[in-house]
Amino acid sequence: MADQIDEYFDTALELVKACGNLIKDHVSGCNKFELKSCDIDFVTEIDKKVEDTLIGGLSKKFPTHKFIGEETVSAGAKCELTDDPTWVIDPVDGTMNFVHGFPHSCISVGFVINKEPVAGIIYNPILQQLFTAKKGKGAFLNERQIYVSEVKELKNALINFEAGTSRDEERCKVVRENFKRITTTGHGVRTLGSAALSMAMVALGGADAYFEFGIHAWDIAAGAIIVREAGGVCIDPAGGAFDLLSRRVLCAGTMELAQELAKTLAQYYPERD
Ligand code: IPD
To answer: Are residue 21 and residue 133 in the same domain, yes or no?
Structure first.
């Protein structure tokens, strides 16, 4: 199986790198976009092109594999996760950043078997950051192996936090409440505008934890394996087991910090993917 995963991973990596050029062509921003679920949820032509290229290339080589892609689901496909080998794809994570030219956007590709992420690629072609992991083989930034931080207490932690891309008032209230709770307890808060890159920062040890309510499977599938392979944990924000389709995530360098954060957070339960 490990050999097969290497082959799947290498194929995906080649396609992801090639798609990176489509993003690099728009380093100063991409002012042509359409709205999706609300007035701050965007899709560009590049999102669609990258997703088509990845799904086209992977399904040609691995015809039995399944796919969950952000734009395919937005266009009406079912978001269905079975035990079969499944590619979970966000073609441009951080689309808002991409539109504005804020250089934190990436392609995020997770490979999931039996509902568990076993390989992941997060690639920011603008800043040349390639985060990768395969189960049991460690996590890497470019060629360098990376490790999470060892911070165990919230009072010493830098937390990645996202406001998200919906204006749902109940969710926004929880976002504001958690911002208050973290800024009064922790070292500080950072917000990058990309869930996948936020998880990559935890894997790198640059941030000690990240949580969000309202993300989707494609935002977090690759990040989950990259954080775990860097030595960290990925759980539900209330402290239980991670569920890829729950639209809830909390990851941290240590379980102690993850559990303290889980107890600190106001909770929000979006409709599942
Ligand atoms: C979004 C980004 C953002 C996060 C949202 C995601 P997209 O993904 O990751 O940081 O807060 O929840 O939906 O729409 O840019 O692919």
So the answer is: yes
